[in-house]
Specification:
This protein is of the alpha+beta class. The chain is about 35% helix and about 25% strand.
């Protein structure tokens, strides 16, 4: 189970439930939409951790920036879907440039490493789909981004996720630590809380009626420093060490977070129809609009 160092200045929004608990209550959509961070108790992702440990977590050999960015956020499907490679002289030749780089660099050009990792990630993919069905039985997904992070992440900046998508959408996210060591996070205030507390200080009313991503970008980059001033903000944080195989579930646009250390993780994101939510007024864009209305009403009063 995760080790959590709670900061008394930040709300304790952690919820620990077993899969049996979740099934008995009919899922966790309501908790997820409220901005809770749900940890699965007495559960460890059944996974071949040694298969991932044998892969390279360094992308230093990749000089193409576009290709390196794609390799940092591979989908697990890259390992087991797509046109099969051609085996030639003890190596594999892929028609897809990203899959070829994945094999050459991450799998070190080793066929056994690639095949073992492919088998492990296919099994993890099926398990993630099963967990989604248990946790969100009423959600109606229409798109899945099945990311697998295999390169090392260190000392990330504190942020709320900005997907740069204009649509008024809802997401469900499931995270799993695929490393043999803990994945270290810090998590801070929920976005609605932070915005209400700093609304006047940073003149956030000027973002009313605009794409919420613009306000997210301003706060993360201009106020908290973004990647230019990583770790220079003074926001209070909880600190969390997620055990190998641990699974946690949370709305990354509501919960501020930063990765302090992590080598390998599964990060699955489902796009969900708002009509299937426990309360469609809890979708991110609607919550931001509600904050602007509250603040405008406060001034008017």
């Amino acid at each position: 189970m995760a080790t959590i160092d709670l900061n008394p200045e930040v709300e304790d929004y952690f919820v620990k439930l077993t899969l049996e608990d979740i099934q008995e209550r009919g899922g966790i959509a309501d908790l997820f939409e409220e901005g809770r961070l749900i940890l699965l108790r007495r559960y460890r992702l059944p996974f071949d951790y040694k298969a991932i440990a044998r892969l390279s977590n360094s992308l230093d050999k990749v000089k193409d920036r576009v290709l390196k960015k794609k390799l940092k956020k591979l989908t697990s499907l890259h390992f087991f879907e797509g046109e099969p490679p051609v085996r030639r002289n003890d190596t594999l030749i892929f028609s897809d440039r990203v899959r070829q780089a994945m094999f050459d660099v991450i799998c070190r050009g080793d066929i056994d490493r690639f095949e073992r990792a492919s088998t492990a990630l296919r099994a993890a993919h099926e398990e993630a789909l099963r967990l989604f069905g248990i946790c969100f039985p009423d959600y109606q997904p229409f798109r899945l981004e099945a990311s697998v992070r295999l390169s090392r992440t260190l000392f990330e900046n504190l942020h709320w996720d900005n997907h740069s998508i204009d649509d008024d959408f809802h997401q469900a996210r499931i995270f799993a630590n695929l490393d043999t060591r803990p994945r270290i996070w810090s998590v801070g205030e929920q976005f609605p809380t932070w915005v209400r507390n700093h609304y006047d200080e940073y003149d956030l009313g000027r973002f009313a009626g605009r794409d919420p991503n613009e306000m997210l970008q301003f706060i993360t980059s201009d106020v908290l420093g973004g990647t230019r001033k990583t770790w220079m903000d003074h926001e209070p944080r909880h600190r969390v060490a997620f055990d190998p195989g641990e699974v946690w579930i949370g709305e990354s646009r509501l919960i501020s977070h930063q990765i302090n250390y992590g080598d390998a993780a599964l990060v699955y994101m489902w796009f969900v129809t708002p009509e299937s939510m426990a309360n469609k007024d809890n979708r991110f864009n609607a919550r931001v609009d509600q904050i602007h209305r509250e603040m405008a009403d406060r001034v008017a009063a």
